[in-house]
Design goal:
The structure is a single chain. The chain is mainly alpha-helical and 120 residues long. The chain has a domain of 78 residues. It contains four helices and no strands. Helix 3 runs antiparallel to helix 4. The longest helix has 30 residues.
Amino acid sequence: METAVGIVMMLATVAAVTYPLLRRKTASSRTGATTPDEPWTRLLTERDALYAALKEIELDHETGKLSAADYRSLRHRYQAQAVALLQELDACRQDGSAEDGPETVVQELGDLLPVPPAPR
């Protein structure tokens, strides 16, 4: 009897935990339509993740956790991804599928590209 009660309580707990997750998933799939902001939101999320990765590898390089060669390689890869992503964001803005934000691709690219040395 105790085993049966334990199983029922375990099933009830699993159902209570998974129900909100499954409900949210089925509610979005039930409509079948995507909102116009979904690609924009996805791109912004990816942009933020790339910016965070760039900051993290810079910190790792400064603290000695990342060699200079690895840092240059990772930074080049992340910058290339960020440039492509920013171009997609700019295309979304030009298509009118997203509202213009305060930043532009040119401003964001300036943050990603290395600063040239000062003339002597």
